[in-house]
Amino acid sequence: MASYLVTGSSRGLGLALVSRLASLPSAQVGKIIATARQDNSPQLTELVNTSSGRVELVKLDVTNKSSIQEAAKLVEGKLQGKGLDYLINNAGLMDWSSTGLEGMDNLNDIFHTNVTSVHNVTQAFLPLLRKGEKKVVINISTTLGSFAKAEVYRQSPTPAYKISKAALNMLTVQYAQQYEAEGFTLLAISPGWLRTDLGSARADLPVETGAEKVLDIVQQTGPHQNGKFLNIHVPGWENASGNNQYDGEEVAW
């Protein structure tokens, strides 16, 4: 029974990931720690209340180091001496600048949430991950952070988001290299363009599909994929027209 912690669980992909995990057999998925900055999400509250104790909510503001440290202590208690198997760094922000770089006035805020906070959370939970059997850390990224695909997404007016996710991918590689000898697996995964508040109703895929396909990768991964940047696989989307294809392959950096 593997244990999971998901950041940014109050809505969007984070909420869908927790919901999907809770739907899987308890023999496969044990304790699910859903973290969120606020505890006022009705959907997440309902998940917690109907999970027979499998899903537990921990307050965690990923941008606040004191909140991260306090959450790590609470999670340690909830795991009752056991380690954490999977950490999914999902919390993130996206900018929107209609004038591109000239209008980009929030790079520090976006970078802090999407990169620095991922480092701070991972760092704080390393002791629990070391005690876990799986030792897997997943960083939710995007193909918009790929240098190789920069031309494809030239028109997307989200410069700070692109910059921060490119940096997140390198952070993932740095962690993968440093902790490889300890049996860790660090992955960046692009979940696709999903119909969430962040992705909009015009997006390609329902958020539930993104969550399912992300977890397909997560639950099959291991040290052989350490440091990789992977795309989800959605049958029928492998060679789709347009900017986005979901072929399950490694994303070109």
Automatic annotation (TrEMBL):
<dbReference type="GO" id="GO:0005737">
    <property type="term" value="C:cytoplasm"/>
</dbReference>
<protein>
    <recommendedName>
        <fullName>C-factor</fullName>
    </recommendedName>
</protein>
<dbReference type="Pfam" id="PF00106">
    <property type="entry name" value="adh_short"/>
</dbReference>
<comment type="similarity">
    <text>Belongs to the short-chain dehydrogenases/reductases (SDR) family.</text>
</comment>
<dbReference type="GO" id="GO:0016491">
    <property type="term" value="F:oxidoreductase activity"/>
</dbReference>
<dbReference type="InterPro" id="IPR036291">
    <property type="entry name" value="NAD(P)-bd_dom_sf"/>
</dbReference>
<dbReference type="InterPro" id="IPR051468">
    <property type="entry name" value="Fungal_SecMetab_SDRs"/>
</dbReference>
<dbReference type="InterPro" id="IPR002347">
    <property type="entry name" value="SDR_fam"/>
</dbReference>
